[in-house]
Write a structure and sequence with these properties.
This protein has 267 residues and is of the alpha/beta class. 32% of the residues lie in helices and 16% in strands. Strands 2-1-6-5-7 form a five-stranded parallel sheet. A hairpin with a 2-residue loop joins strand 8 and strand 9. Helix 2 packs parallel to helix 4. The longest helix is centred in the C-terminal third of the chain and has 19 residues. Its EC number is 2.1.1.228.
């Protein structure tokens, strides 16, 4: 995968050189480039923003530096790729965007080229987003219902969520199938040695060696944790996602939903 990130604070993206993602970059599994937007400015002050039309607080990022940066990155990618399968995806972190989810991360992990535009101040001139649709598949994406100072933190979140799903980056691929949100449920609690720590014991079932029973216990724990912490995820499960034991576990928490009746599913 090719991944380009544009920011006026490229040093903010330094953590991408660490851990599994950093190793993937060094091994060539991920072609990562971080760009300074100011490299596409042409005045002595390297200006990237101006006051908003219509008045109001804050500053808006200028269209032209973004257009030049995106054009150069797009042209370079086309030159390097003999026949790209699809248009690059341009991700614009924004509290006004669609929610970033595990499903989206999985879909993006299969794309050839991602570009992330890290806005600042009051955001990027809307005309950039409209114009970029000619070259990119543009998506405004939100990592949560809150406001950050810029898109760099969101970019780090999205890159880690996507990159770890690229084949070969995670050492044990099976670990990806047991994570929170993988099938609509949160992950079960985990334990390691010692078996007793400060008077607290590891659940006995995990020491039994009965793998079928352990699998069922973990499923029960996922259901309980999800019902307690994220009941909205339980409500979103389709009828075919719950077996009779699942329903019994949820009933213990008064969350066995009648509207998840046979043959009916939630959006």
């Amino acid at each position: 995968m090719r991944l380009d990130v544009i920011s006026i604070f490229p040093e903010y993206l330094a953590p991408l050189q660490l851990s599994l993602i950093g190793r993937a970059v060094r091994d060539g599994a991920l072609d990562l480039a971080v760009h300074d937007l100011r490299d596409w400015t042409h005045d002595r002050h390297r200006t990237v923003d101006d006051t908003p039309y219509g008045g109001g607080a804050g500053m808006v990022m200028l269209a032209e530096p973004w257009a030049e940066a995106l054009t150069e990155i797009s042209d370079r990618a086309e030159e390097d790729a003999e026949a790209p399968a699809d248009r690059p995806v341009l991700l614009v972190p924004s509290p006004a965007g669609i929610p970033f989810t595990q499903r989206m991360a999985e879909e993006l992990a299969g794309r050839e080229h991602l570009v992330i535009a890290c806005g600042r101040y009051e955001g990027i001139d809307q005309r950039v987003v409209d114009w970029a649709d000619e070259r990119f598949e543009v998506r405004l994406v939100s990592i949560g219902d809150y406001v950050l100072n810029g898109g760099e933190v969101a970019a780090l979140v999205m890159i880690e969520a996507v990159a770890r799903l690229i084949p070969g980056i995670i050492g044990n691929p099976e670990s990806l199938t047991e994570e929170s949100h993988e099938d609509g449920l949160l992950e079960y609690p985990v334990y390691t040695k010692p078996a007793v720590w400060r008077g607290r014991e590891v659940p006995e079932i995990l020491l039994s060696g009965n793998h079928a029973a352990i699998d069922r216990w973990r499923r029960d724990q996922r259901l309980k944790r999800t019902a307690q912490v994220r009941p909205d995820l339980i409500a979103a499960l389709g009828a075919d996602a719950l077996d009779p034991r699942d329903r019994a576990v949820l009933a213990e928490h008064e969350l066995d939903r009648a509207d998840l009746s046979e043959g009916e599913s939630k959006p």
